[in-house]
Structure to design on (779 residues):
């Protein structure tokens, strides 16, 4: 049960405190006892702010007597009831205790009756103090002036409203001063009594009075507060709210040096947000920052920290008093007065009421701002979703059309036409990239843009959009063409045609740049992050289609040439690895990920796993190493930032067929189109890599797949991504039983999600099975 009264019992005799505590616990459940035998420890409890409703103390204690202890308690808690419970029976002690401020005096005796008496005295003392406190709270809280007059006609007390109205303290307030505020109309009983003090009016009588200076302050303050409250309900800007607050403080209590501070979003400091002219003249922001501290004022949020008041010598220079009131968790309202004025209780109450209304308005402003931000975010998301849906329709049309074309020219023309004729795009052009001279030559264009591009090569170095796209191999977006770094001539031409934003899309396959697709729209900020990702995927899809078309053309129409090289260049990872592990290694697969890293799949049947790991740790270009499979099926996945050999072959339009190394010498088979400049490629290859030498050249010709290699015909049905997924799943033991790695683990190796892995896996398996059964069904 929770005690209604908490008593601090102090006696050097532990037996006495224990008896009091035990008896009250059994018979007085509404009184809780905290027992202390050391007065110093009891005072520490008061200093720590513990709740104490009454103090019960012995008189005769070793370190201090009861009256000295009473003085120490009164210094800390002037109003707490104090009962002297002692064996000293001297009447002089009792009288001295009462004179010193003790609430009651009880002499210790034998038996339990003394504890019943003590409990009753404690209850009476605490109830009396609580009633007095309630009276004082109500007396001080009444808005109307209230004063107490004794039988002799002396004013013995006045509430803050009365003191404020008459502009003096309770000690200085007299009946003559009161009478001066009552109109002398001869018919007011109160006025006659105030003047004659002979006949007290019967019942309750109201009368209207004015301050001696004629200032109707209370009414004016009330009107100002009500008017500001109505205004705050319609305000949404924090600066406007705080400006209204500092001006209202002037009307409420005559404070002219007023400021309002807002807590910074970081929470570490506050900034001035509004101020009166007198405030700026009286105190600088830098000087005031010392007084307005976040940790001391905003963060505690305790009930006894409702305001902070400085008066007289404690007030800043130029002010006779200043008052600081927290505005919820938003900041501080600072009010300063001059000319000897002070803030009375009524002023402080008004300041707290104003601060509460301002804090509520700031809360509402925050909610409105969050709501507006959310609405803008939702609107942006809706616009982006609509744009993305429109773009997906175009891309779906492109993907469907790619199925029906077979040459690079047809692919380029079709893509350009699809974008150029779409409603959401103004214009599109597609140009081929030349590695030798670093230029992009427009091949096809469509849309509203006659004369914007020609078939003349455009140097990537002179066009910032093309330069970034070519160098970084990523989608480049200009959100506002008019404010871009494009050449002035291009900006003028774009603006005259209604182009507002542009996106340049690299058309790549295995990091080989084939083309650049440039798309223009009539709105700014048309290409968000999602649109860029979709365009990047489209660029890879088009690149794959172009690569497939070129390989098909090379195999069927003109054939291909296989070039076999040997080399000892240490920049080749296979050369370096074969020396490090002292055995043969073979490249069995490779994959270029979206993060730009190349993943090589290397088999080394006799390689020691620890030796491979040590080698990877010592190579700066290796970012990661994973082991796939066990025993003879073990394959190492090596993630690298660059591979000069792979990149060189890809940049020159060739295909790396096989690569292996043993004893520091690599054997590389490269396939190129028969109509390519084979001699030039060989010369450059032998110059580029140390120890490189052409050891054989053979022509590759194929008819249809029925007469050629059936396994090549099967794998030709797979995209590179499907081939990679099947290969990694195979080497990872995914098809073993039990599985060495599950789908989630293989997807993690590939850097894709598990659903994407299973999608590629199922499609790849279906293509292989279709190739088998379709071949078996032939006559």
């Amino acid at each position: 049960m929770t005690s209604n009264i908490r008593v601090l019992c102090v006696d050097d005799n532990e037996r006495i405190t224990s008896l009091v505590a035990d008896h009250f616990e059994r018979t007085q459940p509404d009184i809780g006892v905290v027992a202390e035998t050391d007065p110093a420890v009891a005072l520490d409890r008061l200093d720590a702010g513990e709740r104490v409703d009454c103090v019960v103390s012995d008189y005769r204690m070793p370190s201090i007597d009861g009256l000295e202890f009473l003085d120490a308690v009164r210094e800390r808690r002037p109003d707490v009831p104090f009962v002297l419970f002692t064996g000293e029976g001297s009447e002089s002690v009792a009288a001295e205790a009462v004179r010193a401020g003790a609430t009651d005096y009880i002499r210790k005796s034998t038996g339990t009756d003394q504890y019943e008496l003590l409990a009753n005295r404690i209850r009476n003392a605490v109830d009396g103090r609580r009633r007095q406190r309630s009276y004082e709270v109500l007396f001080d809280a009444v808005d109307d002036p209230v004063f107490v007059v004794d039988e002799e006609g002396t004013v013995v007390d006045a509430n803050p409203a009365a003191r404020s109205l008459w502009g003096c303290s309770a000690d200085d307030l007299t009946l003559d001063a009161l009478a001066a505020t009552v109109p002398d109309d001869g018919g007011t009983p109160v006025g006659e009594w105030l003047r004659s003090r002979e006949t007290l009016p019967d019942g309750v009588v109201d009368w209207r009075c004015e301050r001696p200076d004629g200032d109707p302050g209370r009414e004016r303050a009330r009107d100002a507060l009500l008017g500001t409250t109505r205004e705050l309900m319609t305000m949404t800007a924090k600066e406007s709210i705080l400006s209204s607050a500092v001006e209202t403080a002037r009307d409420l209590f005559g404070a002219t040096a007023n400021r309002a501070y807002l807590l910074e979003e970081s929470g570490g400091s506050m900034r001035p947000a509004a101020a009166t002219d007198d405030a700026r003249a009286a105190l600088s922001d830098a000087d005031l920052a010392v007084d307005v501290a976040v940790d001391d004022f905003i963060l505690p949020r305790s009930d006894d920290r409702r305001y902070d008041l400085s008066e007289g010598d404690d007030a800043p220079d130029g002010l006779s008093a200043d008052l600081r009131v927290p505005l919820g968790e938003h900041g501080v309202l600072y009010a300063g007065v001059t000319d000897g004025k002070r803030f009375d209780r009524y002023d402080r109450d008004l300041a707290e009421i104003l601060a509460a209304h301002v804090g509520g308005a700031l809360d509402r402003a925050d909610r409105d701002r969050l709501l507006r931000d959310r609405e803008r975010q939702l609107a942006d998301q809706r616009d982006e979703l609509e744009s993305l849906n429109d773009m997906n329709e175009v891309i779906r049309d492109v993907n469907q059309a790619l199925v029906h074309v077979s040459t690079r020219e047809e692919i380029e023309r079709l893509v350009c036409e699809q974008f150029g004729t779409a409603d959401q795009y103004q214009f599109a052009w597609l140009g081929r990239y030349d590695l030798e001279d670093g230029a992009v030559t427009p091949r096809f264009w469509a849309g509203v843009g006659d004369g914007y591009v020609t078939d003349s090569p455009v140097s990537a170095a002179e066009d910032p959009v093309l330069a970034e796209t070519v160098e970084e191999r990523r989608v480049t977006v200009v959100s506002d063409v008019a404010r871009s770094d494009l050449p002035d001539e291009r900006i003028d031409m774009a603006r005259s045609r209604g182009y507002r934003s542009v996106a340049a899309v690299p058309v790549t396959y295995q990091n080989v740049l084939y083309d650049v697709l440039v798309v223009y729209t009539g709105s700014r900020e048309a290409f968000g992050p999602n649109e860029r990702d979709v365009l990047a995927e489209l660029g890879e899809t088009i690149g794959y289609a172009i690569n497939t078309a070129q390989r098909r053309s090379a195999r069927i129409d003109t054939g291909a040439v296989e070039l076999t090289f040997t080399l000892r260049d240490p920049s080749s990872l296979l050369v370096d690895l074969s020396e490090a592990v002292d055995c043969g290694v073979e490249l069995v697969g490779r994959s270029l990920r979206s993060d730009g890293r190349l993943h090589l799949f290397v088999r080394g049947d006799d390689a020691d796993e620890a030796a491979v790991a040590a080698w990877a740790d010592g190579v700066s270009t290796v970012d990661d190493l994973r082991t796939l499979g066990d025993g003879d099926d073990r394959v190492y996945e090596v993630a690298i930032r660059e591979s000069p050999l792979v990149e060189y072959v890809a940049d020159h339009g060739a295909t790396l067929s096989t690569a292996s190394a043993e004893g520091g010498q690599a054997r590389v088979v490269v396939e190129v189109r028969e109509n390519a400049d084979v001699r030039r490629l060989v010369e450059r290859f032998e110059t580029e890599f140390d120890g490189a030498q052409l050891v054989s050249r053979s022509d590759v010709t194929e008819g249809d797949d029925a007469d050629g290699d059936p396994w090549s015909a099967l794998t030709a049905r797979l995209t590179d991504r499907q081939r990679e997924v099947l290969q990694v799943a195979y080497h990872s033991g995914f098809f073993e039983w039990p599985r060495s790695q599950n789908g989630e683990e293989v997807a993690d190796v590939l850097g894709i999600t598990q659903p994407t892995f299973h999608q590629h896996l199922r499609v790849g398996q279906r293509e292989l099975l279709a190739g088998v059964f379709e071949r078996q069904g032939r006559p």
